[in-house]
Amino acid sequence: MTKKTGGSGSDNREQLPEGTTTEFTELRALIVEMQTATHVSTQVTQASIQQLGDTVGTLAARLDALTTALTTRLEQQVQP
Prior knowledge:
about 80 residues, 2 strands
């Protein structure tokens, strides 16, 4: 339970039960750590998606080149 401290002209902060400050400090540290981990995870995921996109683009270009080369070669073999 909390209670207000101070009267008029004071800062009106809530007075917390003993030991609560430490718990809030630990909780705050955990939240910051989770936010940092989430941010890093998001960056890694975005980088992985970018790499995957680049790889798919490269594979598509190579497949297109191979298809063109094979088509040309097969057309030459079919012609008398």
